[in-house]
Design goal:
43% of the residues lie in helices and 17% in strands. By secondary structure, the chain is α/β, with parallel strands linked by helices. The radius of gyration is 23 Å and the shape is globular.
Amino acid sequence: MSAGLSSTAIYGLSTEGYRIASSIAVKGSKVSLIDESARMAIRLKPDIARTYPDVSSLIEDEPLLALEPIDIAIRDASYVFFAPRIRKVGQDVKSDVTSKFRDAIKMLKKGTSVIYALPTGIGGNNENITMIEHVTGLSVGKDVFYYYMPQCNASAASSSEILVGSFKSKQDVQIPKMLYEPDVRRKLNFIDIISAEFVHSIKTLEHYTSVASVLEISKHVHDSEISSELMHHAFRDIYIDDMANGLYDLRAIGSSLGAAGPLMYLVNGTIKSIEGYVKHIIDEIRGMLKKRDLKASRTKVSIAWTLDPNEMRGDKIELLSSLETKLKDYIGDVDRQQGSDLDLYPTDKTMIILACTKNDFAKVFSKNKQISEGILMKANPACETIG
């Protein structure tokens, strides 16, 4: 590997950031993984990268790690990946991202390449390039280089290629060597930055408008037999977890559009449909209790939703909080369950377990014998129930 790859900094102690960092570290290159909250950089050595498969296990185990100041890690880096954890919502998102990006680029040196891993919507990369030149005084495309490589959500997981937006279509042969082994099928293709923005936006909308269509049509199905038939057409395994994957991307597209029009309506309608699914779940629970002559005060709801607390996008965490809050307004007794920590202890109340991912459903179903007169509900379009 060339000397130019001797130092890489990844800004963001996120799942995606660690994945990039560890793939580089195991090749023997110098890698600094920046914890933006603690404002320190972790020197990620090959043995640590091999020992810890993900950032969650690294954080939980708290091994002794070599640390260095952020400014030194970025100043010494030939490549800086921007992959922070974003937890702000609404109007605060853009200012949070801007603040972190400014922090990540202020110590750039001449010759460094910046790889931006968050989705920007349409036109967002031009703002980033302008900020780099304003903050550093360096010229993008001449003194420093800029690439757009949004870490894709589940909608693009099966794609055979990864598109990298490149300023003035510049190609960097070292980036594919850093990130992927030769036998990995998916490959990086460099295209113009604006084209990369368009392609990512199209793929995001293509996937989530389809999900929104399923959700909205399912609300009109009130016959259980028809609902069961509908779910056999590959819609059964769409859970709220899958729906929430692209909310950040959709909001980024929406905030980048300047005026109302068909595209804005499409984006906002899709977001509204996915966010509105929380109300649909609660309405379904209300209807079920009424049909079974059960009282809300004698009911307990356990939300089984195993989340990755360290992924860049915070939409699932936000949606889970919204779901829990709104359920408590109606049921009162609501708790959260996480994967292997699933604890379905006996209760004198009617237990409703809401499975929010395919894996959580499988785990709950395998422990179903522990539930006394309980009800298992899938958080899928039809809100299917067992029990």
